[in-house]
């Protein structure tokens, strides 16, 4: 298992069969316990860290900004990471911690990375 996937598994609040995800999500929302935003991603366990990092985190940061959610904190969101037939349900802040741990990034360097990702979005328009 890739190191990043081990971290996601460790930090996940729930690990459920992917086939039960919609019922799991509906149940949370029905009880009023759902987050402000569910961010769903599909991952391949054989992905290298660099591929995972470069394909997921910049898009997440830009999406959070577009929803007026602080992309450096990701509070109030849940990332639903589908890997094979499993779904790892992980809080947004814990998901960002995966990046920080894998990169050895402190708050200042993470802030700079977020700014870089957000500026890439502005350059594209």
Summarize the structure in words.
Helix content is 54%, strand content 19%. By secondary structure, it is an alpha+beta fold. It has one domain (3-124). Strands 1-4-3-2 form a four-stranded mixed β-sheet. Helix 3 links the parallel strand 2 and strand 3 (77-83). Helix 3 (49-66) crosses helix 5 (107-124). The longest helix is centred in the middle third of the chain and has 18 residues, at 49-66. It is globular, with a radius of gyration of 14 Å. The model has no long low-confidence stretch (mean pLDDT 92).
Strand-pairing-aware structural class: alpha+beta
Major sheet: size, sense and barrel closure? Answer: 4 strands, mixed
Using only C-alpha atoms, the radius of gyration works out to: 14 Å
Strand content: 15-25%
Oligomer: single chain
Q: Number of folding domains?
A: 1
The SSE string, one letter per element, is HEHEHEEHH
**Cα separation of the termini:** 38 Å
For the secondary structure, the number of strands is 4
């Amino acid at each position: 298992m890739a190191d990043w996937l081990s971290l996601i598994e460790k930090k996940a609040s729930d690990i459920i069969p992917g086939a039960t995800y919609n019922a799991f999500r509906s149940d949370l929302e029905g009880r009023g316990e759902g987050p402000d935003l569910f961010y769903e991603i599909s991952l391949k366990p054989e992905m290298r860290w660099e591929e995972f990092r470069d394909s997921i985190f910049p898009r997440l940061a830009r999406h959070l900004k577009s929803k007026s959610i602080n992309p450096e904190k990701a509070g109030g969101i849940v990332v639903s990471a589908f890997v094979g037939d499993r779904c790892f349900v992980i809080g947004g802040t814990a998901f960002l911690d995966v990046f920080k741990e894998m990169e050895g990034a402190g708050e200042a360097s993470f802030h700079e990375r977020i700014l870089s990702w957000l500026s890439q979005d502005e350059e594209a328009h």
